């Protein structure tokens, strides 16, 4: 049984355009710098005591063919000018021995700011409910973020998002954002 708990992670993102859908995804992976790996999508837990690396440092740790665990948001379109966004949200608890949450969000018609905020809100809401933080789910994200931070239990929230408009000639356009775990 695999007992791997990542100690490091980095964020990356990319966009790709190609006549073939799969090749468009490959182009996005290349821009993100993770095309050489065998990617395995995992769910949304940010491990305790995991360190966030700069993307350039994290990419250097990857080897061709390596099995690499990611939390990835990905979306594509071949509709000209259609806005697409893929975002990963992250929330970290104040207690570094506790776990955080990562969330994926992929959407049509949302700006990078809106999609990124949504992913960040989703991750923060998951942690807040786990920690028993009382909040009104009907208030805006900016107001809830202040409640979460005032609780003293949440240390940091952030997101990464890639957006693009579908190619004007109808070629496949793919965007992705990923949290990549490394040993």
From TrEMBL:
It comes from the Bacteria. Keywords: Decarboxylase, Lyase, Pyruvate. It holds the Pfam family PvlArgDC. Belongs to the pyruvoyl-dependent arginine decarboxylase family. GO terms for molecular function: arginine decarboxylase activity. This is Pyruvoyl-dependent arginine decarboxylase AaxB. PANTHER family: PYRUVOYL-DEPENDENT ARGININE DECARBOXYLASE. Its EC number is 4.1.1.19. It is an enzyme of class 4 (lyase). Its cofactor is pyruvate. It catalyses: L-arginine + H(+) = agmatine + CO2. One of its GO terms (biological process) is L-arginine catabolic process. InterPro entries: Pyr-dep_his/arg-deCO2ase, Pyr-dep_his/arg-deCO2ase_sand, Pyruvoyl-dep_arg_deCO2ase. Gene3D superfamilies: 3.30.60.30, Pyruvoyl-Dependent Histidine Decarboxylase, subunit B (3.50.20.10).
